[in-house]
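To: structure desk
From: M.T.
Subject: fold request, one chain
Message: Could you run this one when you get a chance? Sequence is below, nothing fancy, just the single chain.
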Amino acid sequence: MAQMIDIKKVTIGPRNLEAVVEVAPSAPLMTSDDAEGTKLVLDLMPELAEHVCLGDAAPRFGEVAENTELAHLLEHVTVELLARTDAAGDIASGQTTELGARTYQITLACPDDVLVAGALSSAAWILQWAYSGGGDPRPDIDAIVGGLVDLVASLGDEKDEAVEPGSVDDVADPAELGAIEEEPETAPEAEDFVEEQPESEATAEESDDESVDDAPAQSPWPTDVVPRPHLVR
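Reply: Done. Structure tokens follow.
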């Protein structure tokens, strides 16, 4: 089967990631259109049945999973992957809205854009496997979750290295700063440079204090339940 789900556009906001997805004409539009594929997904991730599902015909996703939009299933698989990372905050949640024929917007609480985008892409791959007949290799959900966590951690390490104090390369291109007579003990801050000579030097401690705060945005969803709503109807 050709690619089932095309992620057309991703918009990252302060609290949510919004993805416009298109379901291919050759793919099932409803989970009931391919009962075997749907069963493969539910057997692979039985936790989906216990998801709270607001705005649908039943309060639990398991009660509608066998006859709902494929995009709605994609949302719940993404949310389950995020919940398993333990890096998505206390509440992992999503919402699916129909935009047009076979086109949907999936809105996901976004503690980290790389984490959420990676989970959505992984969920699309899982559905591709299931609705293409399954088979080996069977997706290893724990390995997928571990890969998402490692990806976010590796990018965090790169950010830390990028602001490591004590190196002129960390603040600007030395060629753009003119000749440096003596190597300073600590690197000057980029904002302290005029065209040719630095006006002041920053200590390593000051550089650390001014590093970017990577703390994730708090989820806007309530904390006493785990809502995973969709608004396709």
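Reply (cont.): Helices lie at 35-44, 70-85, 113-130, 141-162, 174-177, 204-209. Let me know if you need anything else for the meeting.
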